[in-house]
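Why should sequence recovery work at all? Because a backbone constrains its sequence more than one might expect. Tight turns favour small or flexible residues, buried strands favour hydrophobic ones, and helices have their own preferences. The token representation captures these environments compactly. In the example below, the structure is given first.
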């Protein structure tokens, strides 16, 4: 039912899969084959999508921090949709990608998100109308407004404020925009880890209510950029136990994968992966879970104490679930000489990524 509700929501909007969540070639090829478009944040991601069968016309280069040379290369490859949040970014796009469509990204509150974006991206909404005018003056096409309410967003009403802000901007420019206004609601739709999240249908209903409240009966064209909600449940991460020991009366379990090997999202214990030891039975108890490197920050869970079998020993397997998003793509390049995660596809119809 969750997959059906997600599909219904995506069909109501233009779906641009966020490649950064999981850029595995078969994930990209599977999505390209069913007509998905793609949200890309680098020239490398653009090339990966094209190699997987995606079309340049279906790509949106949405990061607001781009080198001029990369904008030009993307344009030469056929990309025609970009995003900016500052005057100099608009000027770079105008010089390197004449006639392209450009969104203005506004800053929004990320409360309720497990992985907020802070203040790195987005202009003050009060400046957005002037930036859209600048886009038009530069010979570019003002596409509309984009936002991002933070990753793993559990507040179904989080989109209300950016929708309201976008409506204000739209009404300011109602007589100036050359085409229909597009509202890019970004990503943020959550995956289910160890705690339940609201059903996708509740998000769709809350977004629809906000659109009607702020835009009336004539909605803007909608775009969504889901990543985690599509990819997370497709993966599992198999880890080997390196050591089990007791320190100051607490049981520590060290795995051969840690924060630098693909589990970057456990920083602040924001994402709590479901885990178990499939081949070890018997009573369980809480553990502090850590990675294998020589870095003291390479601790996975210390406040959150997952239960693992008391009989767990070095060499046993611990399996983490729901790791299809932001794991292999986050793995560092051989920190401490430990190779990044390898991935394999175990089902050709629905890619299940098993990393080890």
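From this structural description, the recovered sequence reads:
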């Amino acid at each position: 039912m969750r997959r059906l509700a997600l599909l219904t929501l995506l069909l109501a909007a233009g779906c641009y899969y966020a490649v950064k969540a999981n850029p595995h070639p078969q994930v990209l090829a599977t999505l390209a084959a069913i007509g998905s478009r793609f949200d890309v944040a680098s020239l490398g991601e653009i090339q990966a999508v094209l190699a997987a069968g995606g079309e340049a016309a279906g790509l949106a280069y949405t990061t607001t921090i781009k080198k001029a040379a990369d904008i030009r290369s993307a344009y030469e490859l056929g990309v025609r949709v970009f995003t900016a949040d500052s005057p100099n970014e608009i000027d770079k796009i105008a010089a390197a990608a004449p006639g392209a469509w450009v969104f203005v990204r506004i800053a929004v509150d990320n409360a309720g998100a497990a992985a907020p974006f802070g203040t790195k991206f987005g202009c003050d909404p009060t400046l957005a109308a002037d930036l859209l005018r600048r886009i038009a003056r530069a010979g570019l096409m003002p596409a509309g407004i984009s936002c991002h309410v933070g990753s793993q967003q559990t507040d179904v009403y989080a989109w209300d404020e950016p929708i309201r802000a976008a409506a204000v901007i739209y009404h300011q420019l109602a007589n100036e925009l050359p085409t229909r206004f597009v509202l890019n609601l970004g990503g943020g739709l959550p995956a289910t880890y160890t705690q339940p999240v609201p059903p996708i249908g509740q998000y769709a209903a809350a977004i629809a209510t906000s659109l009607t409240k702020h835009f009336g009966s004539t909605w803007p064209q909608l775009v969504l950029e889901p990543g985690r909600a599509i990819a997370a449940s497709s993966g599992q991460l198999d880890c080997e136990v390196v050591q089990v020991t007791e320190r100051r009366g607490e049981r520590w379990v060290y795995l051969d994968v840690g924060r630098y090997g693909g589990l970057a999202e456990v920083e602040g214990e924001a994402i709590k992966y479901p885990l178990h030891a499939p081949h070890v039975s018997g009573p369980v108890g809480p553990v502090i879970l850590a990675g294998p490197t020589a870095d003291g920050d390479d601790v996975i869970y210390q406040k959150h104490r997952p239960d693992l079998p008391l009989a767990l020993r070095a060499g046993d397997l611990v399996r983490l679930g729901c790791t299809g998003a932001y794991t292999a793509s986050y793995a560092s390049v051989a920190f401490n000489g430990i190779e990044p995660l390898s991935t394999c596809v175990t089902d050709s119809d629905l890619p299940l990524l098993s990393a080890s």
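A few observations help interpret the result. The first strand starts at residue 14 and ends at 18.
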